[in-house]
Hints:
Blueprint: E1 8-18, H1 20-30, E2 35-50, H2 55-61, E3 66-75, E4 84-92, E5 95-103, H3 105-114, H4 122-134, E6 138-151, E7 158-168, E8 181-182, E9 189-195, H5 201-209, H6 219-240, E10 243-245, E11 248-250
Amino acid sequence: xxxxxxxxxxxxxxxxxxxxxxxxxxxxxxxxxxxxxxxxxxxxxxxxxxxxxxxxxxxxxxxxxxxxxxxxxxxxxxxxxxxxxxxxxxxxxxxxxxxxxxxxxxxxxxxxxxxxxxxxxxxxxxxxxxxxxxxxxxxxxxxxxxxxxxxxxxxxxxxxxxxxxxxxxxxxxxxxxxxxxxxxxxxxxxxxxxxxxxxxxxxxxxxxxxxxxxxxxxxxxxxxxxxxxxxxxxxxxxxxxxxxxxxxxxxxxxx
Length: 255
């Protein structure tokens, strides 16, 4: 298994938000050119860590030229024996770089909470330097989605469709469940095209014919923005429910 694990990646990543109809169209057309990979439909969980004031996510929302994130990722529900990935994802001038190592939830917890290093590789040292630079990093948002990945023989092209993307801000681990709050309407999905050089002409035509246009959609940023809106709504509802009573005010949520 270790031979199949890619620890370092550099590529372009293009994202598209698909309607229910576009999902059906794209799934049918892509099979004329690419194959579904051997894993088929896979549920992926990504646990994002951030500073107490959400510095990394807020920077990403601002769409700077350079941005970076750190996360734990599992394919399926994790357990004590399941390998998971601790990875740094950086984006600089539209090029995405990933560096990751294989670990487990126990080791990852000790890395973030007790400052214990994971291994002694170059990537391990980069992860340690990342953590030291930002100081305290806490689990903040868990992103979950059901992915179908496509590959093409003798090509660096990779295409994925992420269906039912969802999130939660409680039970922040990779082993409890796949439950979460939906980020899209029913049937919609996120298409990602990942390539080291350029998109082939046939794929460009496929996108054009399906009226599929590039969009900017970050699952973790969208989840964060929704949580901020929920917090503001609850705070406003709380303030508006203030009732004057003898000796002061009485507060309570009115929904």
